[in-house]
């Protein structure tokens, strides 16, 4: 596979600001692809949605549990991308106790579309969503992608088979 650059998009995130008073000390912070990927080794995995069964029961928890193993292999960051907004991603991470994996909202699906992983989930009332995948990105270049088989619009489900943390770890160990 010839390396392809990650798309140049802006992620609309929320970050804590202790200077703000009140019950919601968070503010908007736009982060670009370049800021996230330039000069870094990043594992990114995309999934259909926060709070959905396979995403919550195995996909995200698998990467959280193996986070240190990725760090030990020189990975700067492990990122979960989903076509959800920043508020949903924050609450999902809080509900699952996620402390190490960065939950990156792709609310408009621009990143997912830019890497060719945006699919329609309209039959389930979910709009456009990310296909389930994992990829290794080095200095903004997509070096390896593990895309779940059967890529299509309105799938009945997308199980975690090859985009899991173990598959990515095995790949990185052989690099």
UniProtKB/TrEMBL annotation:
Enzyme Commission identifier(s): 1.11.1.27
GO molecular function: thioredoxin peroxidase activity
Keyword Magnesium attributed: no
A GO CC term assigned to this protein in UniProt: cytoplasm
Keyword vocabulary terms for this entry: Antioxidant, Oxidoreductase, Peroxidase, Redox-active center
Name of the featured protein: Glutathione-dependent peroxiredoxin
Any one Pfam family match given in the protein's UniProt record, by short name: Redoxin
Family the entry assigns: Belongs to the peroxiredoxin family. Prx5 subfamily.
Keyword Oxidoreductase assigned: yes
Positions of the Thioredoxin domain: 1-174
Cited InterPro entries: PRX5-like, Redoxin, Rhodanese-like_dom, Thioredoxin-like_sf, Thioredoxin_domain
Reaction it catalyzes: a hydroperoxide + 2 glutathione = an alcohol + glutathione disulfide + H2O
PROSITE patterns on file: RHODANESE_3 (PS50206), THIOREDOXIN_2 (PS51352)
Gene3D superfamilies: Glutaredoxin (3.40.30.10)
């Amino acid at each position: 596979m010839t390396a392809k650059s990650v798309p140049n998009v802006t992620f609309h995130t929320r970050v804590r600001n202790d200077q703000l008073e009140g019950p919601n000390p968070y503010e908007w912070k736009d982060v670009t692809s370049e800021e996230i990927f330039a000069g870094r080794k990043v594992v990114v995995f995309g999934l259909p949605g926060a709070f959905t069964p396979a995403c919550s029961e195995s996909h995200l928890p698998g990467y959280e549990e193996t986070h240190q193993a990725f760090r030990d292999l020189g990975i700067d960051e492990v990122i979960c991308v989903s076509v959800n907004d920043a508020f949903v991603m924050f609450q999902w991470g809080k509900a699952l106790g996620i402390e190490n994996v960065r939950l990156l909202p792709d609310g408009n699906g621009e990143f997912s579309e830019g890497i060719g992983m945006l699919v329609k989930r309209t039959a389930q009332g979910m709009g456009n969503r990310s296909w389930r995948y994992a990829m290794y990105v080095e200095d903004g270049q997509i070096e390896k992608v593990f895309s779940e088989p059967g890529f299509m619009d309105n799938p009945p489900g997308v199980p975690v088979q090859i985009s899991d943390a173990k598959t990515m770890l095995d790949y990185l160990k052989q690099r």
